[in-house]
Amino acid sequence: MREIVLDTETTGLDPAEGHRIVEVACIELVHHVPTGRKFHRYVNPERDMPEEALAVHGITAEFLANQAPFAAIADELLAFIGSDRLVIHNSEFDLSFLNAELARLQRDPIGCPFVDTLGLARVRFPGAPASLDALCRRFEIDRSDRVEHGAEIDCRLLAEVYLELLGGRQPGLDFAMPADEVATAERIMRPPRLHFPSAEEVIAHQAMLRMITEPIWLLEG
Question: Is 209 contained in some domain?
Fold first, then answer.
C-alpha cells in the first residue's frame, strides 16, 4: 500500500487572498513505512514575502527569486503523487493551496484520496492539543532540528506521527480502528479494497512456516 506524506509552506494563510506556495515536500510510504523516496522543491511565488510568513519558515523572497515557479514543477509533483492516498496534517490548508496553484494553470484539482492526521489525532485524543509539535511531544519524537517550519522536515516528523497514530511501531497490532473513528478522521474518496492473497503469496507463506522450528502455536502450555 503506497501513501504520500505531503506538506507545504506558503506566503500566508489564504490562497483566495493571493498567497502562494513557496515550498512543497513529499515522502513515500509503503505499508506506512518510509521507503526513502522523496520529492522536495522550493517554489518562486512570484510575489513578496510577508513578515508574518517569514517569521514562521524563514524562507526569504531573495532566496525564492532563484527558484522555479509552480508551473515548472507541477508535472513532476503530480507524477510523484500519482493516484495514491495522501497523508496531510490539516489537509484543508495544503489542498486549498495546491488546488489554487493548479487552477492558475487550468489544471484539474487533486482528486486522490487523503487522510487528515489532524482530524485523526482529534478523534484519538479528544480535547488534547493536536498540532504537529504537540503530537511529537506526545509520542516522544525528536524534533530538535526543527528550528523553523519547513515542508521537508515536517514531512519526516509527520510520517513518524502518522505511524504512531495508527498504533505505533509494531504494525498490525492496532491498525484496525473502529469504523466511526475512520469515518470521522479520514476523508476517503473511494472505498477501501480488500486484499486476498494470491497463489504465489500463499505458497511463499507456507514456505516461510516450514522454515520455523518449534513454532509456539505447537508447543504445549
Answer: no
Which is more confidently placed, 107 or 198?
107
Between 49 and 145, name the one with better pLDDT. Answer: 49
Q: Which pLDDT band holds residue 175 (cuts at 50, 70, 90)? A: very low
137 band by pLDDT with thresholds 50, 70 and 90? very high
Q: How many domains does the chain have?
A: 1
Mean pLDDT score of the chain = 83
> 204 in a domain, yes or no?
no
Domain assignment present for 40: yes
Give the domain extent around 19.
2-191
Catalytic residue among 19, 57, 89, 149: 149
Q: DSSP per residue over 131-173, as a string? A: SHHHHHHHTT---TT-SS--HHHHHHHHHHHHHHHTTSSSTTS
| Rounded Cα gap, residues 167 and 101, in angstroms | 35
Q: Grid coordinates in use for 189?
A: 474518496
Place of cell 486522490: 112
Whether 57 sits among the annotated catalytic residues: the reply is: no
- Residue 215: what pLDDT? 52
Burial state string for 44-60 with b = 16 or more CB within 10 A and e = fewer than 16: bbeeebeeebbeebebe
CATH (domain of 115): 3.30.420.10
Burial class (CB in 10 A: 0-12, 13-18, 19+), 203: exposed
